[in-house]
């Protein structure tokens, strides 16, 4: 076998799957007889396989990382919106209830003060406490909800 034969065999191996039937038969016959080119073919095959699997692995990792990043941002956005909505509703609720109930409550407390025979300062203090109570309850609930969201957030980040 001449040196040209081995070179031709290696050139065909490098071509890989783009061989004609005649070239494949010739190469197969040469590889049966030539251990050097057989080794070369094996190494080439391994390299080709490694190169083929590389982009796939990178793609999968990239896709997974992108998906995780998108999911993380989506959940952050949802939590922020949820919190803003809660704060907005709480403010609206407190504002509405105050506007609607203050005049009525004021009259009720004035009537109860007169009925119990206490001074104006006493029933007015009672009114103030009663009026502040819902705002306090809402604040505590909001605080608890906010803490819950923060804990949840930290949990998902871990
Ligand atoms: Zn050879």
Structure description:
There is one protein chain. This protein is mainly α. It has one domain (34-157). Helix content is 92%, strand content 0%. The protein has four helices and no strands. It has helices at 3-15, 21-33, 35-116, 120-157. The radius of gyration is 40 Å and the shape is rod-shaped. Zinc ion binds at residues 6, 9, 30, 34, 36-37.
Secondary structure: helix percent: over 70%
Shape estimate: rod-shaped
Which small compounds were modeled alongside the protein? zinc ion
Helix and strand composition category: mainly alpha
How many DSSP H or I helices? 4
Can you summarize the main beta sheet?
none
Whole-number mean pLDDT = 81
What Rg is obtained from the alpha carbons, in whole angstroms? 40 Å
Number of strands: 0
Give the strand content.
under 5%
Task: Describe the structure concisely.
The protein is an all-alpha fold. It is 92% helix and 0% strand. The protein is built from four helices and no strands.
What is the topological layout?
Layout (H helix, E strand, L loop, with lengths): L2 H13 L5 H13 L1 H82 L3 H38 L1
What descriptive keywords fit this protein?
single chain; 158 residues; mainly alpha; binds zinc ion
